[in-house]
Amino acid sequence: MVSAFNEKDNEIFDKIILKRRTYRSFGPEIPPVETINKIIGAGIHAPYAGAAVVSNSAYFRKFFVVDKRSKTMSALIPLFFKEALKMSAELKKAIEINEKLRESAAGFVNRLAMIENLGMVPGVGTAPYFIITAEKKGFPPVEQQSLAHCMENMWLKATALGLGFQLVSITSQMTDNEELCKIIKLKQGEWALMGCATGYPADELSDSIRPSVNEVTTWL
Ligand SMILES: Cc1cc2nc3c(=O)[nH]c(=O)nc-3n(C[C@H](O)[C@H](O)[C@H](O)COP(=O)(O)O)c2cc1C
């Protein structure tokens, strides 16, 4: 049996879970490099699909930190926006002929319309740092699940360090994007990608609000 942490430790752990929120607005102050490294360290310790990637000798998870003030960021902003426009055009076409999709995708269509109006993808250039995480594709193809675990570890650590965190899920669509793969020097199509933005939050959000355990749990 794993030795349990004491009550105080668990109170802190629970507090971090409740404080973890999606921050979409960041202050101008740049967090120290060590803080970002600690967040990445938490991501490295997240679980990975051992059987899917174990035959590869090279390490299978990589992180790319893009500073808001960098030339790389200036290149990424239009690249991500172009991807959002492409997605939006494809979705508009698809919902014209698919009524079911039109209903289920309504929320996402609105989100893409908001991005179109904004002229950029929220999280790419709106926070001090944008971090792209890459996971080598393997078999079975569970890289996105692996990346989700990685993101959650990073998110909780960012929260513990007082930083805001925002997923930028359009990054996951860009595994085949030639220009992005050139910038991060990864072979096109060989890596699954996910992105997140982090920095000090502009305002503090309330704790996470969810249904109670009893409302959503069935014991059998
Ligand atoms: C798979 C996934 C993708 C998400 N993508 C985005 C995104 O691209 N941009 C964003 O601002 N939030 C994104 N979110 C955050 C959710 O909108 C957010 O977690 C949800 O609304 C609950 O809010 P909370 O995180 O503050 O508890 C994503 C969340 C998940 C789980």
List low-confidence stretches. Answer: none
> How many β-strand runs?
4
The CATH architecture of the domain at 24-70 and 123-199 = 3-Layer(aba) Sandwich
N-to-C order of helices and strands: HHHEHHHEHEHEH
Query: Roughly how many Å is the radius of gyration?
Result: 19 Å
Mean pLDDT: 95
Beta fraction: 5-15%
CATH superfamily of the domain at 24-70 and 123-199: NADH Oxidase
Q: What's the total helix number?
A: 9
Shape: globular
Search tags:
alpha+beta, binds flavin mononucleotide, NADH Oxidase, 220 residues, 13% strand
Describe how the helices and strands are arranged.
Layout: H1 7-19, H2 33-44, H3 50-53, E1 61-67, H4 71-96, H5 99-104, H6 106-118, E2 129-136, H7 143-160, E3 164-168, H8 178-183, E4 191-199, H9 213-216
Antiparallel strand pairs: 1-2, 2-4, 3-4
Helix pairs in contact: 2-7, 4-6
Flavin mononucleotide (FMN) binds next to β3.
